[in-house]
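Closing statement on the NAP sub-project.
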Amino acid sequence: MGKGVAAALAKEAEVIIVARSEERAKATVDELGPNASYVLADLARLADVRRVTEELHAQHDALDGIFVNAGLGYAAGRVETEDGMDSHFQVNYLSHFMLTLNLLDLLERSEHGGRVIFNVASFGEMDWDDLQMERTWGYERGIGQAMVAKRMLVARLHALCRARDDSRVSFVGFQIPKTVWSNQINIIPWPMRFMATVVKLFGGFISIDDCGRIMAPLFTEPHASSLRRSGKLITEKKGALVEIPDIDFVLDPAEQDRLWRVSLALSDDDATRRIADQLVDKLAS
Ligand SMILES: NC(=O)c1ccc[n+]([C@@H]2O[C@H](COP(=O)([O-])OP(=O)(O)OC[C@H]3O[C@@H](n4cnc5c(N)ncnc54)[C@H](OP(=O)(O)O)[C@@H]3O)[C@@H](O)[C@H]2O)c1
């Protein structure tokens, strides 16, 4: 999905891909053309996230938008990262928390109005007693928990920035309306692939190019329109971008605050903590 959106945007804008494999990043950049470049980071490593935000600061004075997208889907079993976390939790949520906070200043300097578009879906639950899924693991459970966490982050960042009367950056959760025929198809076991192929024949999937066509306007629309969507969960219906109401749990400030504090503790990163403190301090003052 990231590639589909990057391809749509690279026709007229400079696009930087954050990728874990240099070989695949080079091939993608060659395909996308002269407006595309890459930086390397394995989002399963906190140290890589820290390094890549420093690299982006060294290379750029401002960013117009971030697509918070990369994520693990199907997995045969639980994988623990070298930081001691569940890989779905770390790659699909915590790395995005860190990246977004550390790139906020570059987004604030955008001449077009910075925006963060989170690729989310409206399912999932938080398991506060087993966040790292050591007791009960399932890949769908891991994807779902990260989706809820990202939706809570959208609402929290929006609330923090608006409360200090700061409208330089918008934060939008976007749910693609149909399942996407992505690289997941090459990863899932063959019975699932067979079923998916049948469903595809009946029009049950959309392509990554469709994804790019649907989602690119979120990055290019005027900032005033993007600000009106900020803090919300959006999808596409009959060619229009429409809001979907999110569940009470996601919108509860106490739950958002709990996730915020857990995320800071798990990131264990001074720079991220400083940025978070500044956001919350301005709110208090
Ligand atoms: N497919 C759908 O219908 C659908 C619907 C709603 C939301 N989503 C969400 O959309 C996102 C993309 O899904 P997709 O279907 O496009 O999956 P995909 O084809 O498997 O692509 C996932 C992307 O994430 C990258 N990635 C995975 N782990 C990474 C890591 N540790 N560090 C850096 N990059 C990493 C992959 O890089 P490599 O090339 O190195 O593997 C790949 O480019 C996911 O968050 C998914 O949950 C998907």
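The radius of gyration is 18 Å. With this model delivered, the sub-project is considered complete and its resources will be redirected to Aim 3.
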